[in-house]
Every structure is written in structure tokens, then in C-alpha cells.
Amino acid sequence: MASPALFPVRRVVVGSTQHEAVRAALTAARPDLDTRGARYQDVTADDLAWADAYIGFKRPPVPTMGTVRWVHCTGAGVDAWFSPTELDRSILLTRSSESFGPMIAEWALARALAVAQRLREFDAAQFERRWAPRDPHLLRGTTAVIVGTGDVGGHCGRLFAALGCHVIGVSRTGAGDAAVFAERHPVSALTQVAARADWLLLMLPLTDDTRGLVTREVLAACRGAVLINGGRGAVVDEAAIPDALDAGWLRAAALDVFAVEPLPATSPLWADPRVIVSPHISGLTTVEGTVAGFLECLTSIEAGATPRWTVDRDRQY
Ligand code: GLV
Questions:
Q1: pTM for the complete prediction?
Q2: In angstroms, rounded to a whole number, what is the distance separating the alpha carbons of residues 25 and 67?
Q3: Which of 57, 94, 255 has most ligand 1 atoms within 8 Å of its beta carbon, as the pocket-test mutant?
Q4: Under CATH, which number does the domain 101-277 receive?
Q5: Those residues with Cβ within 8 angstroms of residue 135's Cβ, 6 or more apart along the chain or in another chain
Q6: Mean pLDDT of 278-305
Q7: Where do the CATH 3.40.50.720 domains begin and end in the chain?
Q8: Residue 230 Cβ contacting ligand 1 at under 6 Å
Q9: Residues with catalytic roles
Q10: What's the 231 CA to ligand 1 centre distance in angstroms?
Q11: pLDDT recorded at residue 5
């Protein structure tokens, strides 16, 4: 990618619930920056007509980005800047430098162990004062198929392998760290590989290519897998999940992300005891990480160089 033309960054709008802390840390590090902040929903057209740069996970609900020439997305996933329309390509788009892998991997492992150790069943029995022995299962000797072999998928792979799982990676190219993924397959093999999964982890970004990747047909190929989605809800045919559970294609599902968030109260997923719902908390952005990533990118921009965290507009991550 060509270097961006050097442009001055003096005025920064922060669109985040953490805007006060982010602005305070920014000002401490770079007192020459002028900042404004609000929840992203409350950022105004006037703010954006004032700003050179915008920091936030989502696009503010205004028609244009005003004078903004650089957007620093505070999340790992930048899909909010591509859908429903792509951020104008004349605006630089960078993403968080934080590694969300360790946190999302622990989230995923906690769900796998909760299912294997039947925590929900023992919880229910406990509160009914029922002594109800049942055999827990082991992760050891089972197969984890991880779709997405980047930072997040790689950390998941390491934890599942450490507990004795056979770990298979699926990615766009079929590449992946051979020290983590005992087998690596391209996404064209997803249906065949899903048939071998005890754990089917979705740890990939939402792009034009991955939207709806896990179709009803892929789910129908599963043989009692546990679906664990820490990526984006729209990667899977969410409406097919209840059917997949009823048909036994899936044994359980642990979902942190949903096609529509917050998950609507009418969704059947809420009340299904085979589904573990969490409210998009598996990988959290920190104030320190946001500011460090922004400042690292700013240093590059000021040197006339392309920031390391620049989003590839064609790949969409
Ligand atoms: C959260 O979902 C993120 O993309 O960082």
C-alpha cells in the first residue's frame, strides 16, 4: 500500500463510552492534541467537521465523516467500517494494536470446560438441592476445529492443544502456525472438516467473504459438535442454530456475538439451556491499548509512513 500523504493531526474526536479516560491519556501523552469526546451515538456532524482524526469502534450516526482523514478503530474487528457501506477510501483506517487472543481464548476454553464438565446441569441440581451424579467429559482426546488462524485463533489453539485436543485450523489460505495447528485446511474444506469437530470455534473477522460462511449445510455436516463463536455473529447462519441443536448436529453452542446486538429479547437462543449466551465480552478493548495503538499509528503518520495497523481495504481486516 502506498504511504499516506503526510497530514497534520491536531484535532481528535473520541467516540466511545470510555471517551473521558481516552482523552485524558491522550492529552497526557500529547498535550498538543485538541480532543473532544462522546459516546459514539452522540458524536455530532459538527464534531466531525472539526476533527482530523476519529477514534472509535463504530461509525457515528451522521451522514459523513466531515474533515476526518484518519479513523482508528478501537476493536480487532473493523466490520463496522465496511458495512453497510465502506468508509471512504480516501480516509486512512487503522485498527487496534491490542492482542485480544489471550482473553478470547480463555473465554472459549471456559465455555468448552463448562459444557464438558456439565456445569449447567450441576448448577440446576444444586439449586434444587438434588444429588445428581453424571459423568463429566474430558477435552483430552477430542478434536477442536478452529476457523480463523490469526492471533485469536492461534491463542485458542494453544489452550485447547495444552489440554490434549487435536487442533485443526481452517483459514482463507489454509495457512497457520504448524506448532499450534496439527492440521491446516483452506476454507473450501470447511464442511468436511466440521464433520470431525467436537468443538467448532469461529474466530474470524466479518468480511464480504466470511459473512454467512457457516451455513446450515456446514452445521448439518457436524456430528454433535459444540459451536463456540467469539468472532462475529453474521459469520454463521444464526437462524439455523436452534434447528442444528434439535437435530443433534450441534450438542451445545456458546455465543458471544450475534447477528443483531444486543441479542433481541425475542431470540430463541436466550431460553435454550443448550446455549450459553454472553453479551459480546470475550475480548475487551482497554484505554491503555487504545491510546498506545493510536499513538503508534500517529508516530508513523507524522513520519510520512503507513502505520503498521493499517487495515487492508480489500481483505477487510
Ligand atoms: C470486538 O468485538 C472487537 O472486534 O474488538
A1: 0.95
A2: 23
A3: 57
A4: 3.40.50.720
A5: none
A6: 97
A7: 11-98+286-302, 101-277
A8: no
A9: 232, 261, 280
A10: 8
A11: 53
